[in-house]
Design a protein that fits this description.
Keywords: Membrane, Transmembrane, Transmembrane helix. This is Transmembrane protein. With 174 residues, the chain is mostly helical. It has one domain. Helix content is 72%, strand content 0%. Helix 1 runs antiparallel to helix 2 and helix 4 runs antiparallel to helix 5. The chain is elongated, with a radius of gyration of 22 Å.
Length: 174
């Protein structure tokens, strides 16, 4: 009975965090972390740009911790109900998540350095390539979301309840 309660508690944390953090969170963090048009013109020196970019690092760390909640739930579910096939999928989720975090951090940091303050080229043009990273992030996030959603559904489904499509013996009798 306690395993069922722990599974239910994990499901109660997993599903809202998956919806609010993974599906709605990127929009909120995007609004909070990007340098807007009124900030870039006020930055005039290389030091100011670097300070603005470095100021995004604590938010990126918090964002990564918040996004890790669904993955943590999957790991805890696996510890509770070990299954080798699901364990491999969770490892894949963790790897995809790590790549997503690095890609997102590079994009956020790079976009902070791209505001050019009166056309002064303070930083390497390589940072301009970070503008393509959101597309890479989407390409990685789609399989991550699908895999995480399917694992969460598998773990949060009760095993002691028969499947809905299974026919009951009573229904077949006249």
């Amino acid at each position: 009975m306690t395993r069922l309660a722990v599974r239910a508690l994990l499901a109660a944390v997993f599903w809202p965090s998956l919806f609010f953090f993974w599906f709605l969170g990127p929009f909120v963090f995007l609004l909070l972390s990007t340098t807007s048009s009124e900030v870039c013109p006020r930055l005039e020196t290389r030091g100011e740009f670097l300070a603005a970019a470095n100021a995004t690092l604590p938010m990126l760390a918090v964002q990564s911790l918040v996004y890790a909640v669904p993955i943590l739930c999957l790991v805890l579910w696996e510890r509770l109900l070990p299954e080798p096939a699901r364990a491999r999928h969770i490892v894949t989720c963790i790897k995809l998540f790590a790549v997503t975090i690095v890609t997102g951090a590079l994009w956020s940091y790079g976009s902070s350095l791209m505001g050019d303050g009166y056309g002064q080229p303070f930083f390497s043009p390589m940072w301009q390539w970070t503008s393509y990273l959101p597309m890479v992030g989407i390409a990685i996030n789609i399989p991550l979301y699908v895999l995480t959603f399917s694992l969460g559904r598998a773990y949060s489904t009760r095993e002691d309840v028969p499947a809905a499509d299974a026919a009951h013996p009573d229904q077949n009798m006249p």
